Amino acid sequence: EIYTLSLHDALPIFLRTGNHLVEFYSPSCMPCRMMQPVLEEISKEYLDVNISKVEVTKNQRASQMYGVMSVPTIVILKDSKIKEVTRGVQSKATIKALLKKHVRNGKHCS
User: Fold this and answer.
1) Which of 28, 33, 48, 71 lies deepest, with the highest CB count within 10 Å?
2) Are 72 and 95 in contact (CB under 8 A)?
3) Is 29 known to be catalytic?
4) Which of 7, 9, 14, 29 is an active site residue?
5) Is 109 one of the annotated active-site residues of the chain?
6) Beta-strand (E) ranges in 33-105?
7) How does 58-94 read in b/e, with b if 16+ C-beta sit within 10 Å?
8) How far apart, in whole angstroms, are the C-alpha atoms of residue 70 and residue 102?
9) What average pLDDT does the chain have?
10) pLDDT above 80 for 6
């Protein structure tokens, strides 16, 4: 499952504990749309990672808090600490490698 978040959803509180992959995106961004199926596949394989999307135009404060300068930007967090930030379209293999690097002892389906 992929969550859509905003500051109204208390984003910083949601990200306080656990493993998170947050995609900062814009609905009009074609590369962001290309990431959707990749993130859906990842969400089925990494059960211990909360995968979320934050629309930058509606959540400018959140974008500033996480240093988002372009979309798509993916931020990987563990217990509220930023572990990795990537910009641009990423392959499934790249995202899996980043999660493997930062999310130890993860529960995987495959």
Assistant:
1) 71
2) no
3) yes
4) 29
5) no
6) 49-55, 73-78, 81-87
7) ebeebbeebebeebbbbbbbbeeeebebeeeebeeee
8) 23
9) 88
10) no
